[in-house]
């Protein structure tokens, strides 16, 4: 059974940092696009960041560029999201996602992903 399990969320003051992890099990995702999305209360799920299979190619939503960094460790079957200078508007449930197959192009739409984690809550405590 394939599982993606996020961790690392919590309460954080404005300007603070958090590092989210997403550990995959049940199959290897070393050849897969993986991404982070988030959903704030009353809003639709939105794209945050994406990383290709090797970790060389990444992209971000404009709202997080320069503050968030996505990375991966294929040996650990895990991706990460380093979030710096967090702001109140970053409060949301953060989800990781994985594509089932190899592809060359990055994926920005949630509909393109095949596997999802249960989410981890990030909350502004200011």
Give a brief rundown of this model.
By secondary structure, this protein is mainly β.
Keywords, separated by commas or semicolons:
126 residues; mainly beta; four-stranded antiparallel sheet; 0% helix
Structure description:
With 126 residues, this protein is mostly beta strands. It has strands at 3-7, 10-12, 18-25, 34-39, 46-51, 58-60, 68-73, 78-83, 92-98, 115-116, 120-124. Strands 2, 4, 5, 6, 9, 10 and 11 form a 7-stranded mixed β-sheet that branches. A 4-stranded antiparallel β-sheet has the order 1-3-8-7, with no helix packed on it. Strand 4 (34-39) and strand 5 (46-51) form a beta hairpin. The mean pLDDT is 95.
Our count of helices gives: 0
| Low-pLDDT regions | none
Overall mean pLDDT stands at 95
Q: Write the element-wise H/E pattern from the N-terminal end onward.
A: EEEEEEEEEEE
The class by helix and strand makeup works out as: mainly beta
Mind describing the biggest β-sheet? Answer: 7 strands, mixed
Rg to the nearest angstrom? Answer: 13 Å
Q: Give the number of DSSP strands.
A: 11
Distance between the termini: 39 Å
Q: Classify the beta-strand content into a percent band.
A: over 45%
Proportion in helices? under 10%
Q: Secondary-structure blueprint of this entry?
A:
Elements: E1 3-7, E2 10-12, E3 18-25, E4 34-39, E5 46-51, E6 58-60, E7 68-73, E8 78-83, E9 92-98, E10 115-116, E11 120-124
Parallel strand pairs: 2-11
Antiparallel strand pairs: 1-3, 3-8, 4-5, 4-9, 5-6, 7-8, 9-10, 9-11
């Amino acid at each position: 059974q394939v599982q993606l399990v996020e961790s690392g969320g919590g309460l954080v003051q404005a300007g603070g940092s958090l590092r989210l992890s997403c550990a995959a099990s049940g199959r290897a995702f070393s050849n897969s696009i993986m991404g982070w999305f988030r959903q704030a209360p009353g809003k639709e799920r939105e794209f945050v960041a994406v990383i290709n299979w090797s970790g060389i190619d990444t992209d971000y939503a404009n709202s997080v560029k320069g503050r968030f960094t996505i990375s991966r460790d294929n040996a650990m079957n895990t991706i990460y999201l380093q979030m710096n200078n967090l702001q109140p508007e970053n409060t949301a449930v953060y989800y990781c996602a994985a594509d089932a197959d190899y592809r060359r192009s990055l994926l920005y739409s949630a509909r393109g992903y095949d596997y999802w984690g249960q989410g981890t809550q990030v909350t502004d405590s200011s």
